UniProtKB/TrEMBL annotation:
<feature type="transmembrane region" description="Helical">
    <location>
        <begin position="69"/>
        <end position="89"/>
    </location>
</feature>
<protein>
    <submittedName>
        <fullName>Uncharacterized protein</fullName>
    </submittedName>
</protein>
<keyword id="KW-0472">Membrane</keyword>
<dbReference type="GO" id="GO:0005886">
    <property type="term" value="C:plasma membrane"/>
</dbReference>
<comment type="similarity">
    <text>Belongs to the MreD family.</text>
</comment>
<keyword id="KW-0133">Cell shape</keyword>
<feature type="transmembrane region" description="Helical">
    <location>
        <begin position="39"/>
        <end position="62"/>
    </location>
</feature>
<feature type="transmembrane region" description="Helical">
    <location>
        <begin position="95"/>
        <end position="119"/>
    </location>
</feature>
<keyword id="KW-0812">Transmembrane</keyword>
<dbReference type="InterPro" id="IPR007227">
    <property type="entry name" value="Cell_shape_determining_MreD"/>
</dbReference>
<dbReference type="GO" id="GO:0008360">
    <property type="term" value="P:regulation of cell shape"/>
</dbReference>
<feature type="transmembrane region" description="Helical">
    <location>
        <begin position="140"/>
        <end position="158"/>
    </location>
</feature>
<dbReference type="Pfam" id="PF04093">
    <property type="entry name" value="MreD"/>
</dbReference>
<keyword id="KW-1133">Transmembrane helix</keyword>
<keyword id="KW-1003">Cell membrane</keyword>
Length: 172
């Protein structure tokens, strides 16, 4: 049961991303900001920080592929971006003490890395023609605020769950 719980929680976060966008964030808003929930990525970053690099990389690959299959026309952009972001964040976390502030900063940096990867790859391929200043102000900043709030909300219960899973893995 514990082996299924972690992917199920990340999957619930993945499903809630699209539900949140449709229900609470109208397509046309008065500020013209693009709020992009990356809740599953935040949870994958927590996994990479608190469990190990392998789990973060595998969940990044799996949910990146799922994102590519469901939401994009080109397979590989999110697959690469989410996996690479989980790996980079895991490497950074090895050198830092894992507490609330560090984890929140790493998750915000991780979401930034993901957004820059996706923006860069989409610009390279020719899918996106958004200017960098518009991207930074209208997409990246609101996205970081939204996902930072989500990271604060899930920090204690999710890290507690990850620590229980880590203890279970050590026993086996």
């Amino acid at each position: 049961m514990k082996k299924i719980l972690l992917p199920f929680l990340i999957y619930l976060a993945f499903i809630s991303e699209s539900s949140l966008v449709q229900a609470f964030l109208p397509h046309e808003n008065s500020m013209d900001w693009q709020l992009i929930p990356r809740f599953s990525m935040v949870m994958i970053l927590f996994v990479a920080i608190y469990l190990n690099t392998t789990y973060g990389l595998l969940y990044g690959l799996a949910f990146g592929l799922l994102t590519d299959l469901l939401y994009t026309d080109i397979i590989g952009v999110y697959l690469f971006s989410m996996a690479a972001t989980a790996y980079i964040t895991s490497v950074f976390s090895r050198y830092l003490f894992g507490n609330l502030i560090v984890t929140l900063l790493l998750s915000i940096v991780g979401v930034s890395i993901l957004e820059f990867f996706v923006y860069g790859l989409n610009s390279l391929i020719g899918i996106s023609n958004q200017m960098i200043d518009v991207f930074l102000y209208k997409r990246l900043l609101p996205t970081l605020i939204l996902n930072g709030l989500f990271a604060i909300l899930i920090y204690y219960p999710f890290v507690k769950q990850l620590n229980q899973i880590k203890d279970t893995l050590k026993e086996n």
